[in-house]
Amino acid sequence: QLQLVESGGDLVHPGGSLRLSCAASGFTFHKYTIGWFRQAPGKEREGVSCIDSSGHSTDYADSVKGRFTIFRENAKNTVYLQMRSLEPEDTAMYYCAAASLFSCTISEYEHWGQGTQVTVSS
User: 81: exposed, middle or buried (C-beta count within 10 Å: 0-12, 13-18, 19+)?
Assistant: First the structure.
């Protein structure tokens, strides 16, 4: 059974850092693009970053470029999102998802995790 499990969310101060993890099981992980998305209360879910199956191609939302880094370890079936210089506007539930082609478009993603909460507040 395909499963994606996010972890690493926490309460941090503005300017702080967090590393989110997305652990996958039940499918051929190294053949899938993995994306990170987030949804704040009262807002639509939005794309944050995505990484292709090889890890060589990545994309980022403008709002996180230069602050967030996505990378993957296929041997561990895990994708990470390193987040730095966090801002209150980054507060949201963060989800990882899997897609069979390289895209950061939400509609392309077939499989989703349950999410991990990131709260940035002083």
Answer: buried
